[in-house]
Structures are given as C-alpha cells and as structure tokens.
Amino acid sequence: SIFSAFVTDMTTERTFIMVKPDGVQRGLVGEIIKRFETRGYKLVACKMLWPGQDLLKKHYAELSDKPFFPKLIAYMSSGPCVPMVWEGREVVKMGRMMLGATNPLQSNPGTIRGDFCIDVGRNICHGSDGVESAKREIDLWFQPNEVAKYESHSKDWVYE
Ligand code: GDP
Ligand code: MG
C-alpha cells in the first residue's frame, strides 16, 4: 500500500527471552528454544552467561523496591542463564503469552511456565513486557555484533 514505506516491518520486532538458572539446571533450554523456533520466530542472538549482581540489578531496576528483590537477585545470579533475542511479528506480546503468567500457579497449561514450573521464585524464563523494555534489555545483555542479521529461508512460509 501507499503506507508500506512508512510502516515498520513488523516481522523485525524483537524480544529478549532468557532461560533462568533453574531452567538451565533442569535441562529446559532446548524445550524453550524449540517452542519459539517451531512457532516460526527467528533466533538472532543466543549465549550462555552467568550474570553478576550488577547486571541483574540493572535488568530488574524497576523491581528494586519490592520485598522479594534480594531473593530475586540471589536466584538469578545462582547459575548460568541463556539470554536470547527472538525476532518476528508481534514477538513481544506473543513471547509473553508463550511464557504464561508470572506466577506459574496462574499460568495456563500449554504455556512454558504452565507446563514446567510451580513457584513464582522459580519460574524458569524471562520475557520482555513491551517493545521499549525489549530494546533496553537487548542493549543491556548483548553487544550489537552479537545480534545476527540474516534472512530466514522459511520467511515466505511463515508470513503471508
Ligand atoms: P515477569 O515479567 O513475568 O518475569 O514478572 P515481573 O517483571 O513482575 O517479575 C520479575 C521476576 O521476579 C518474576 O519472573 C519472578 O521470578 C520474580 N517475582 C515476581 N513477583 C514475585 C513475588 O511475588 N515473589 C517472588 N519470590 N518472586 C517474584
Ligand atoms: Mg518483567
């Protein structure tokens, strides 16, 4: 359409998804990656990293006043994590839906949290809650040269 040149290509929206230390220890890295891959989303960055407290305090800065904050930082710094960047149409919102509610007891079966965990303090994965926070988190966890730019060969089979 006449507008197409001015509209952001929605297939390049990005979100920050991270397998938390409990997800890594419980062998759920592949399962979590598989769900995003088979949905049709494109993996553009992925690494293993044992995050320090400074990085985690920045990541969760908006929760610093919460009573559970010290426990959250201890949990998240207890082992290696697998931070990732996924790309695709409405991937921020869909990523949150695929993860399920923050508290796994409220996460629907079929979601990642709803299928694999029970406690809010051991909810195995993180997902950005908005496009702006996704940008902030991607910049916090990845160098620009760690995020790959490539075209998926499935593109025309996933998007109309
Ligand atoms: P998320 O975006 O769904 O991960 O949820 P939030 O941004 O609200 O919280 C970040 C993380 O803090 C959650 O994923 C939980 O691991 C943890 N968290 C949130 N609320 C609570 C709580 O009430 N108690 C505990 N122990 N941890 C919590
Ligand atoms: Mg959050």
TrEMBL record:
Belongs to the NDK family. It is an enzyme of class 2 (transferase). InterPro entries: NDK-like_dom (IPR034907), NDK-like_dom_sf (IPR036850), Nucleoside_diP_kinase (IPR001564), Nucleoside_diP_kinase_AS (IPR023005). The keyword Signal applies. The active site is at H126 (pros-phosphohistidine intermediate). This is Nucleoside diphosphate kinase. ATP binds at K20, F68, R96, T102, R113, N123. Residues 12-149 form the Nucleoside diphosphate kinase-like domain. It comes from Sinanodonta woodiana. One of its GO terms (molecular function) is nucleoside diphosphate kinase activity. It comes from the Eukaryota. Residues 1-12 form the signal peptide. HAMAP family: NDP_kinase. It catalyses: a 2'-deoxyribonucleoside 5'-diphosphate + ATP = a 2'-deoxyribonucleoside 5'-triphosphate + ADP. PANTHER family: NUCLEOSIDE DIPHOSPHATE KINASE. Its EC number is 2.7.4.6. Its cofactor is Mg(2+). Keywords: ATP-binding, Kinase, Nucleotide-binding, Signal, Transferase. SUPFAM superfamilies: Nucleoside diphosphate kinase, NDK.
